[in-house]
Amino acid sequence: MKKIFFTILLTQLLLSTEIEYKIDNGKIHHNHTAYLTPSEELTMRFDVTDAKSIRWYQIIPDTSKFYKNANYPWEKKNPYKWCGYGKIDYKRVPIKAFENKKEVLLTSKILKENRPKNNPYYNAKLGSFWFEAEATLKNGKIIKSKGIKNVERKGLSPKVFRVSYMLDKSYIGYLTTFFNVPGIFGSMPYQSRNYIGVDCADVLVATSKVMRHEKNEKNYNVVMLVDTLKIKKKFSIIDGKPDVTLKWGKAFKKGDFIAVKYSPNGRYAHIGMLYGDENGNGVLDENDSFINAGPNALNVATLKSGAFNGTVVILNNKDKEK
User: Fold this and answer.
1) 84-141, pLDDT tens digit by residue?
2) Smallest Cα–Cα separation from 56: which of 106, 4, 123, 16?
3) Would you tell me how many other CB atoms lie within 10 Å of the CB of residue 9?
4) Residue 126's pLDDT is what?
5) Strand 257-261 versus strand 270-276 pairing type
6) Can you say whether the dihedral through the CA atoms of 102, 108, 111, 114 is positive or negative?
7) Are strands 103-106 and 231-238 parallel, antiparallel or unpaired?
8) CB 95 within 8 A of CB 166
């Protein structure tokens, strides 16, 4: 019996292996995540001997949909009530250019070709991308990396190989690695830290934790961030237009946070990061951009979209200079 048990165990181990990678001409890494900038080259390797065929897949979460762990604030019945982990939809797309290759070079062309239809939140240049590899041996056995079958109660397993492209190695750069991560209202720290799903506050906190290589265990909401961080300015935005004159680089800086409460007696309900003086006039106005998540996936928008119409505060993001 013992011999049979160990034979079965050994067989199971042999039928599962993981994707390895290297950045530029660096060493081979065996962990489940790769962080790099678009100027760097990523080589992935599925090191299987005696393979008759090898197939590669990109696993793409459907970020065009809304997901929730708790009821939305605008729901009439029990707003904010926990309703259980939302089920995220994933699609596995074959990468034909990688077929029968043990070692492959990931390019922006590949990521663009796999763009889902009718999904404005898929970013082919920055953000996170998941991959699976499968080899059929000459004896007929199949060896797979972790992949589409490894969806747990909270979402896709963190052991599925992930590539995260960042704008640069600053806080803002790390925030851009959360493009292509589903928006989940009421997301939990485990989900945000592992790129399973984020909401508006969690993505900002998770970015700091990822950058610092810290675990994200405390669950922050918008109100907690407003109460915790230093308030630089408080004013109103109407139809995307601030009712005061605020200059970029003086009253606030790129990377600072902006939070809003939509009614004077309400609570702060949404938060994002101020990103760009898009028209270059040096003054915060309706044309300027921010990055935010919730209820959508992380995206770049402008103040004229109305997301921050109401009473707002600009909060000092102490990590923005890093």
Assistant:
1) 999 999 999 999 999 999 999 999 999 999 999 999 999 999 999 999 999 999 999 9
2) 106
3) 10
4) 98
5) antiparallel
6) negative
7) unpaired
8) no
